[in-house]
Specification:
Helix content is 31%, strand content 19%. The protein has 124 residues and is of the alpha/beta class. It has a domain of 82 residues: Nucleotidyltransferase, domain 5 (2-Layer Sandwich), CATH 3.30.420.270. Strands 4-3-2-5-6 form a five-stranded mixed beta sheet. The protein has a two-stranded parallel ribbon with strand order 1-7. The termini are far apart.
Length: 124
Amino acid sequence: MDRELDQINVIPLVDVMLVLLVIVLTTATFITTGQIPVDLAKAKEVGDRKEVPLVITLTADGRLYMNDRPITQDGLKDALLPHPREALVVVRADRVTLLERFVQLVDDVRGLGFQQVSLEVVRS
């Protein structure tokens, strides 16, 4: 029983590394930008902003989301009231959304005093 250890057992190290790899790969698949499926319109010029905006998403079927949380049209005012009026508001509208619905949404946001309202698009 007086055996001398002359090598390192790497099997536990490999097991731990495989578990960590599985954890990283499974969590990486859930991290995406824009959890709500919206087919954005395309534009040649896209602006870059450094501040974190308030994101309002308008889906093709007319549902509203603010920062990935569902809201109603009537709840939009209540959701925007706590935020400063100087905050940037970005509207992510599906490209098949009716123009009238989009304009109504932007009018509602601007009517609450937000002046920096922009549309999010993807570069073509």
